[in-house]
Amino acid sequence: MKQQNAILENQNRQLAEHGRMLEVLGKASLRGVLAEVDNTIQDRQLSMMETMEQLHDGKSIARWGDGEIRIMLQPEFELSFQKPNPKLALELERILATYDSIAHNTLLAFPTVFVSRMWMGIWAEMWHELRPILNLSSSPWGNTHISRPLFFQKHGSEAVDAWRKLWDGKNVAVIAGRGSRFALLPELFDNVGDIKLIESLPRDAFNEFDALKQRVQDAPQADLYLTALGPTGTALSAHLSSPEGGSNHAIDVGHLSSSYSTAFNGGKFPEDVPLISAT
Asked: Which residues contact 202 (CB under 8 A, 6 or more apart)?
C-alpha cells in the first residue's frame, strides 16, 4: 500500500510539473497574442470597484465570459444550458460591434485577462476573430468579475455593500430561468423595496427571446432589472437598457448568488452548482 501511494504521489507530481511546463510553453508561444489581448482589453478595463461605481451612477452592464465568447464565435459550441444558436451569436456580436453607440448608459464587460490553460486555449483559438470586433470600439470595458467569487474574495464586506447599495429600497425585477440556481440570499437582497420574478426557460432561453422581452415589457415597471440567464442574460440586459427596450437600469448579475456562497459560505464554485435547484 505504501509503495502504491508513493507511486501515485510521484505520478501526481509529474502531472503537475507537466502542466506547469505546458503553461510556460503556452505563454511563450502566445506572447504576441497575449500582448494584443492586454492592449485591447486589459489596458482599457475598469477595476471591479470602478465598475460598481459606474453602476451606482446609473449605468447598465452586459457581461462576456468564456461561454459568451465561445457561443458567439464557435458555431458548434454548446453550454449545458444553451445549445448553439446562430441568432444569439449574431446578437452578441452586434452588441459588441456597436459598443461606442451605447457606452453612455451601458457598460460591456470582459473578464480580467488570465493566462490559465483554459484562457490560453481561448486566445489561441479565437483571438483572430475576437480582436477585430473589439477594435470597433474605444470605450472602457467593465469588469465581469463583479459577479464572480473573486470580487468577494478580494473586497469582502465592501463587495457585499457595493451590491446592496445598488438596489437599496428599490423595486427589483429578477429575470432568471425557471427553478434556476439563482437565489435571493438575504445577505444580499434583504434591503430591497420589492422583488418580482420573471421566469424564462432554464435551458435554451434565447429560443423565447422575443416572448421574454414582451413579458418584461408587460410586467409592472421596476427600478432595476437583474438578469441571470447566461448569454441570453447578456443580450437581454443590453436590450433593456436600450431606447428600444425602455432605457431601463439593467444589470447582468450572472452567478452572483453562487459566487457569494463560494466566498463566504464555502459553497461550490458557481459552475459546479446544479443548473436547476432541487425542490
From this structure: 81, 177, 178, 179, 180, 275, 276
Q: How many beta carbons lie within 10 A of that of residue 13, not counting itself?
A: 10
From first to last of its 279 residues, the chain has per-residue pLDDT tens of: 666 555 556 555 545 444 444 454 455 568 889 899 999 999 999 999 999 999 999 999 999 999 999 999 998 999 988 999 999 999 999 999 999 999 999 999 999 887 678 888 899 999 999 999 999 999 999 999 999 999 999 999 999 999 999 999 999 999 999 988 789 999 999 999 999 999 999 999 999 999 999 999 999 999 999 999 999 999 999 999 999 999 999 999 999 999 999 999 988 877 777 665 544
Distances (CA, A) of 256 to 4, 138, 144, 167, 269: 43, 28, 11, 14, 11
Single pTM value for the model? 0.87
Tell me how crowded residue 185 is: count the other CB atoms within 10 A of its CB.
15
* Residue indicated by cell numbers 459550441: 77
Q: Are 59 and 250 in contact (CB under 8 A)?
A: no
